[in-house]
Amino acid sequence: MAIENRKVTVTVNGQERSAEVEPRKLLVHYLRDDLGLTGTHIGCDTSQCGACTIMVNGAAVKSCTMLAVQADKSELTTVEGLGTIDHLHPMQQSFWEEHGLQCGYCTPGVMMAMIGLLQENPNPSEEEIREGMEGVICRCTGYQFIVSAVQKAAKIMAEAAAKDGEAVAASQLVGEGTHRG
Amino acid sequence: MIPVKFDYVHAATVDQAIKLMQDSDGTGKVIAGGHSLLPLMKFRLTEPDVLIDISRIDQLKEVKVEGERLIVGALVTHHDASKHPLIQAHVPLLADTASQIGDLQIRNRGTIGGNLAHADPAADLPAAAFALDAEIIIQGEDGEERMSVDSFIIGPLITMLPENSLVTGVSFSIPPSHAKSVYLKYFHPASGYPVVGVAAMAGTDKAGAIDYIKVALTGVGDVAFRAESVEQTLLGQKPSEKMIREAARLAAEEGEMGSDLFASAEYRENLCKVYTERALRSILL
């Protein structure tokens, strides 16, 4: 059976990108291999570890369990879209300052998942952060430093929102960085 | 891991999805969130020739009250089900259960209809569906039909879904407003799947006697089941610690306990009793 490739167009980190792909291509492979956005990692490849987590239309999703064709016409944010070296996203800044990573392999996915958590719940308790980490696995940190980083990020983001004089949703803090794919 | 080659088409309407299934001559599979289907396809345990994507049929995302029942569109995600005001107000058990499925990312993609159509024996949702007397709404070649969830799910990953038809929604009975509910599970620490999951609802009348009770269990065997012995024992009684403990001893009566690497049948039977007791205590005492 002859199967035609499909053109998949997405807005990723604020830029429109497209590529012709096989229907069976996974979204994470599309990002990494077709668009060159290798910040998103593949860990378990079985929707357990969350290393491949990105935002699809504002919701945290495991990109190893989605087809590129399913993402056609969607808005995506990957770790490359969070911040720049000069202007880190509060989540990146906090992971750095609180040592929320060791080897760093899981980090892009964990940060995206935790931004997803803060969108829902801008001021989570420690318990809620730990529950929110259900969908990510880190084999280095023992999670404690990640919890601290998320607490700090929540604080910075809440302060930034208060400073703006109105409640700025965490979602609006996503995607302001410069695309460097 | 990537699946074997397949073709991929979008269905804009339910009728078109049915037509595309007919055209595929049994080789097509419907995909919504894909969180049950894609893992199987990546392991090449299933190899459809064509995927029919229904995820953009907006009418399947609706939630509405219809008399004494709440209709939840098949495409409502677990995340949206856990937060939806109508679901929280009318069938809080469904919202509670949906909030405990998988993890944040999975709840953002997995759908109510897809979950039940997949009929995974280790899924959380069937417990709530059995407790809430769910009816599966199916659109097929000859129109719409409704099937009770216990006649729809007949085995592990096996349903009575007719050929060339589609789950378009699920209808849940709305419990009386005085009923409290809970979903409680003992889950495998790595997978998060319930080894035993108990969905319970109960309420008492003005005299303090139990006038409404539903208990359903999932994860323990091939299919979820209603613990009718527990319900019958407690109905009309005034709840007490002793009464609940004695009734919970019957929690495994109607089920067939599975035995696997996670838990033996004997252990599962014990977990059924312990978790049913805990669930009922939390809503009745």
UniProtKB/TrEMBL annotation, chain A:
Alphabetized, the UniProt keywords read: 2Fe-2S, Iron, Iron-sulfur, Metal-binding, Oxidoreductase
Pinpoint the 2Fe-2S ferredoxin-type domain residues.
6-82
SUPFAM superfamilies assigned:
2Fe-2S ferredoxin-like, CO dehydrogenase ISP C-domain like
Keyword Secreted attributed: no
InterPro entries from the xrefs? 2Fe-2S-bd, 2Fe-2S-bd_dom_sf, 2Fe-2S_ferredoxin-like_sf, 2Fe-2S_ferredoxin-type, Beta-grasp_dom_sf, Diverse_Oxidoreductases
Key word Iron-sulfur present: yes
The protein here is known as Carbon monoxide dehydrogenase small chain
Organism this protein belongs to: Bacillus badius
UniProtKB/TrEMBL annotation, chain B:
Which InterPro entries has this protein been placed in?
CO_DH_flav_C, CO_DH_flav_C_dom_sf, Diverse_Substr_Oxidored, FAD-bd_PCMH, FAD-bd_PCMH-like_sf, FAD-bd_PCMH_sub1, FAD-bd_PCMH_sub2, Mopterin_DH_FAD-bd
Pfam short name (any one): FAD_binding_5
The alphabetized UniProt keywords are: FAD, Flavoprotein, Oxidoreductase
Source domain of life is Bacteria
- Ranges for domain FAD-binding PCMH-type come to 1-177
- The name this protein carries in UniProt is Carbon monoxide dehydrogenase medium chain
Species the sequence originates in: Bacillus badius
